[in-house]
Amino acid sequence: MSSRAYKIAVLPGDGIGVEIVPQGIKCLDAVGARLGIAFEYTEALVGGAAIDAVGVPLPDDTLSLSMQSDAVFFGAVGGAKWDNLQPVSMRPEPGGLFPLRKALGAYANLRPVVVFESLISASSLKPDRMEGGLDILFVRELTGGIYFGKPKERREVDGETVAIDTCSYSDFEIRRIAHMAFLQARRRRGIVHSVDKANVMETSRLWREVVTEVAEQYPDVTLTNMLADNCGMQLLRDPKQFDVILADNLFGDLLTDEAAMLAGSLGMLPSASVGEQHGGLYEPIHGSAPDIAGQDKANPIATILTAAMMLRYACECPDGAVMIRSAVESVLDDGYRTVDIATPGCDVVSCSKMGDLVAQRI
Ligand code: IPM
Ligand code: MG
User: Fold this and answer.
1) Which CATH fold would you assign to the domain 1-106+267-362?
2) Mind listing the pLDDT tens digit for each residue in 271-300?
């Protein structure tokens, strides 16, 4: 194992972010203790917490700390309190999270959807749809598309208020995320479904053209171009047909929330956002969940599995990632559940207790 200390920027953010991030850290420390890896954590403000403290959602200190770190471990941002700030760039998501993703060059958002055997009954789907296991990897483009396109504004036109969002993608942006999807598929079951609305959108037509062209370099991988609405339906009809799903920023966002319900809860899905210049941004796919914040009842498993992804991608420690996964599996097998995945007869535990249980088993 590496002898150097990994520099981790810790950005808990808002809402349940401050409750789940410490659970991930507990598990990282447990792995560190077992494998002799040192982590050097530095905490910084982001989102609403940063707005309240220093007036901006992404303070310069936070950005430079993040850029200089080996990885950024991120909780969640946002909440009603900051939803109406003007200009919009002062709000937690467009002013904090998005510029951070962009600055780190984290264009590839990897979101694995894995159903733990003992949680099949917590899924909203009939168990037979998932029996034998489900293992999908979403590869979501993260720094382009409608989230970032300009103009993004409101105008008065002939006495009416018109809102405009622009969706734009370059062939370069599509090509690099497509390569990521094919490379991932090559290490898995060799199937890529690329999602678009090529029947409606120009960006989708370019997306399909470029992805199809990139596919020629991966003769060992099968590509299917699928319309996004159909993909939404297929995920519920027959999720086991999927291996890697490649999607743009918006479709990837929507479809991963849907897919989270296959895994039982939004609180189960981790993610890694990676690029070429930096070790990456590691965040659970869910948000700050203001409705349950401060009650120690959020599910920290998404964050704990996110820590595992960080070990794998930023800290050259696949063994640690496997340890975390097995520990989560064993805690679930023993019937411990946070309230979002509770089933009759299980042992309902708090967020911090779940963190303790997983860390102890590491
Ligand atoms: C996600 C989240 C964010 C996104 C929100 C919080 C802006 O939903 O990472 O999936 O849409 O990217
Ligand atoms: Mg989302």
Assistant:
1) Isopropylmalate Dehydrogenase (3.40.718)
2) 999 999 999 999 999 999 999 999 999 999
